[in-house]
Amino acid sequence: CGLMLSVSLTSPLSLLLDLLPPGVCNLLNPAAIYANNEISLGDVEIYGFDYDYTLAQYSNLLHSMIFNTARDILIEQFKYPEGLGKYDYIPGFAIRGLHYDVQKSLLMKIDAFHYVQLGTAYRGLKPVPDEEVIELYGGTQHIPLYQMSDFYGKGPSLKQFMDIFSLPEMTLLSSVIDYFITHGIEFDQVHLYKDISDAIRDVHVKGVMYKWIEKDMEQYILHGDEIYAVLNRLVNHKKKLFLITNSPFSFVDKGMKHMVGKNWRDLFDMVIVQADKPNFFTDRRKPFRKLDDKGSLQWDKINQLEKGKIYKEGNLFDFLRLTGWRGSKVLYFGDHLYSDLADLMLRHGWRTGAIVPELETEIRIINTEQYMHSLTWQQALTGLLERMQMYQDAESKQVLLEWMKERQEIRSLTKNLFNPQFGSIFRTFHNPTYFSRRLVRFSDIYMASISCLLNYDVNFTFYPRRTPLQHEAPLWMDQLCTGCMKTPFLEEMVHIR
């Protein structure tokens, strides 16, 4: 065994080439649809859609505009220091799904088991040492369930940022804290968080963002032609379509005319704007109101939802009563796991599709040789550590320690390929993230954009991969190592997850 440890430690990194079978890179397709649950599109009769970041995908330029405007609101209206004006948006600083501890001013990534991923906790724009994070949470990395979040990602002191519009909010939060810490200014954490949330909200509520997009749709809206192709194809196959969005009609109308054409409403059986999701799915009190073609409210009582008409507000219970659209024949797509999908799946039995634009970038990274090599070597080391840890002589202990150090270095390297601060939105080293767990829980299928539907027949059945439970794992060879008969550690690698 000592010989085996010594040989494996001193083996050149080129051994990775032996661990990777030919053609292993580019295994994943960024335009594929991935299934958490078995679902047949042939059973789906009705397709529903959110608008922002679902039908309409926006360019990253929008994040800078939101950041700058909210920053200026803080300075001009909330009387924050003018020095904040020197801060610009940092593309790629934050990722979706992070948690923010309001009382501790800590932005961090938490895994599916409620553990903070060390190395991903930031106060302002600087990382917080691991030892300090552990001390802040009473000697552990674990965040208790009662502190974490309610059904919609809001806990007593922790808030989870789940939508794509939250990227500029997290960056602004970190920038303001950085300014105060750098200049030695005391601040109230709760007030600061609320002020920034209010400033970001004003950008949306007061319609500033809508004006930017309407003014230059070519620059801000992506994949427009593909959206028309998806909707037209579904209608041609006799599917019913509806739209439920929190955005106002004039904004949606201009965007859909840009992407789909002036007669876009002919494709939809129902259009509901300013729906106030997630309250739309849970609150029975708000009735539907009809809008005329100019977007003005009508006074008449709604006893039926008519094709070609535009409705405002309302609630899902009246929607179900008036349409009779229930259960698994309905498939609804949205980008926000809580506001769009959670209630529909858990309370109403609809099928759900999550739009995760980050998936495209992450899969392209996963398909690189650098990632494949790093992951394979990391898993080889993990398997060897698991198998060889019983050897406790001095020489073996030294080798095991060096393996542990090398494994940690590779894990950090792999994390940095996705995002230097927080890594992948889907993984915290080996565990799924809290975001990933919610994605699996609240969506039947997920994909980078609605246009991915064009790659599948309208009757296609999605079968989720049977991934091994831990007690089943010895029956499974790791995909990366299948057929690698050259590796000297094949027996050990049977147990690598």
From TrEMBL:
Keywords: Hydrolase, Magnesium, Metal-binding, Signal. Binds 1 Mg(2+) ion per subunit. SUPFAM superfamilies: HAD-like. The active site is at D50 (nucleophile), D52 (nucleophile). GMP binds at D52. It comes from the Eukaryota. Residues 1-25 form the signal peptide. PANTHER family: 5'-NUCLEOTIDASE DOMAIN-CONTAINING, 5'-NUCLEOTIDASE DOMAIN-CONTAINING PROTEIN 2. Belongs to the 5'(3')-deoxyribonucleotidase family. This is 5'-nucleotidase domain containing 2. It comes from Taeniopygia guttata (Zebra finch). The lineage of its organism: Eukaryota, Metazoa, Chordata, Craniata, Vertebrata.
